[in-house]
Write a structure and sequence with these properties.
By secondary structure, the protein is mostly helical. The chain has three domains: 67 residues, Winged helix-like DNA-binding domain superfamily/Winged helix DNA-binding domain (Arc Repressor Mutant, subunit A); 29 residues; 70 residues, no CATH class. The chain contains seven helices and three strands, in the order E-E-H-H-E-H-H-H-H-H. Strand 1 and strand 2 form a beta hairpin. It is rod-shaped and about 125 Å long. InterPro entries: WH-like_DNA-bd_sf.
């Protein structure tokens, strides 16, 4: 049985020594001392008011649970869930508004417009490149025979086809079958 000096009642509260208080809360005396440094109330040096320590532990547990509930939707009440998801919705709506403003200010281009204009550019580029090969072949054939001109035109067309094939890595452009013939 505990001695009066280690466990007693005073003004309607239970006062326990550090050893008994630690045993009651299931912690070590060092943990109880750390709690005291963290703000846990104690009665006097070496003695703890069990009711006050219990209230302090409950408050700390409540704060810990509240923090978990703020960050973990599975631990939120329905009202907290509603507020949480409304806040997330507002953040996404703000992001959408920023993106719309950037598009309106010309910071972004529409994908369809870019694809259409690049397709037109590369179609003209391809035709011009193949036309360049034919023009160079005519210039060569004026100074040599026509067979050399046709050979030069074939080599130039082959090089241009290889270059365009390398540019179209994702397979957007493929050389025509009749161009190889």
């Amino acid at each position: 049985m505990a001695e009066k000096s280690e466990l007693y009642f005073e003004d309607g509260t239970i006062i326990a020594s550090t050893r008994y208080a630690a045993a009651y809360f299931g912690v070590t005396p060092a943990t109880l001392s750390n709690w005291g440094k963290s703000g846990c109330p104690h009665f006097k040096y070496g003695f703890w008011d069990i009711k006050a320590v219990t209230a302090w532990c409950t408050e700390k547990d409540g704060e810990r649970l509240a923090e978990a509930a703020r960050t973990d939707p599975s631990k939120m009440t329905p009202a907290q869930l509603k507020t949480h998801y409304e806040a997330l919705l507002k953040q996404e709506q703000l992001e959408g508004a920023r993106l719309r403003n950037q598009i309106a200010n010309g910071e972004f281009l529409r994908r369809g417009d870019v694809v259409r204009e690049l397709s037109q550019f590369f179609a003209v580029f391809r035709a011009s490149s193949f036309g360049l090969g034919e023009a160079l072949a005519q210039l060569v054939s004026d100074h040599t025979d026509s067979e050399t001109g046709r050979t030069a035109a074939g080599l130039i067309r082959s090089r241009i086809t290889q270059a365009l094939s390398q540019m179209a890595v994702s397979g957007v452009w493929a050389p025509d079958e009749e161009a190889d013939a």
